[in-house]
Design goal:
The chain is an alpha+beta fold and about 140 residues long. It contains 9 helices and 4 strands. Strands 1-2-4-3 form a 4-stranded antiparallel beta sheet.
């Protein structure tokens, strides 16, 4: 557990007040150096870990992978466009997602996060995200509900 300066404690209180969340719970998560946590319907993800967390999330959801834009899939997963389009037309989204996993989705997820930001990945409530710096670490914040 790290000792936080008075300035950083004030920053945490300010952030908690801004989102209307529990100050103590936010502080506990920061002191425990959690990379991904939720406080009162807001998810905080350490920016340096966000791509890895997104990658793990999509690896578990082949259906969602198969629903990505056909050109985007083809450009980033080394799968021919006509194959992607045929599988999507047949509504074989999970099967396409499995094929994407076999061909590697690291580049696709990295590019998706770069182009659309993390709001679309993690922000199930409204697709928006904020960035806050807490104790020298950049967190991406999303409303979850």
């Amino acid at each position: 557990m790290k000792n936080l300066s008075l300035t950083e404690l004030k920053n945490i209180v300010s952030i908690a007040n801004n989102y209307g969340i529990d100050k103590k719970e936010l502080l506990e998560n920061i002191e425990n150096e959690k990379e991904d946590f939720e406080v009162d319907n807001y998810r905080f993800v350490l920016e340096s870990e966000a791509k890895n967390i997104a990658l793990d999330m999509y690896k578990c959801d082949t259906y969602m992978l198969g629903c990505f834009n056909d050109f985007f899939i083809s450009d980033n997963c080394d799968i021919k466009l006509n194959v992607v389009q045929a599988l999507q037309k047949a509504e074989a989204f999970s099967e396409l997602g499995e094929l994407m996993l076999d061909n590697g989705i690291e580049e696709l997820i990295s590019e998706y996060c770069r182009l659309d930001g993390y709001g679309n990945v993690f922000g199930s409530y409204d697709g928006n995200s904020d960035e806050v710096t807490i104790n020298g670490n950049l967190y991406v914040v999303f409303r979850t509900n």
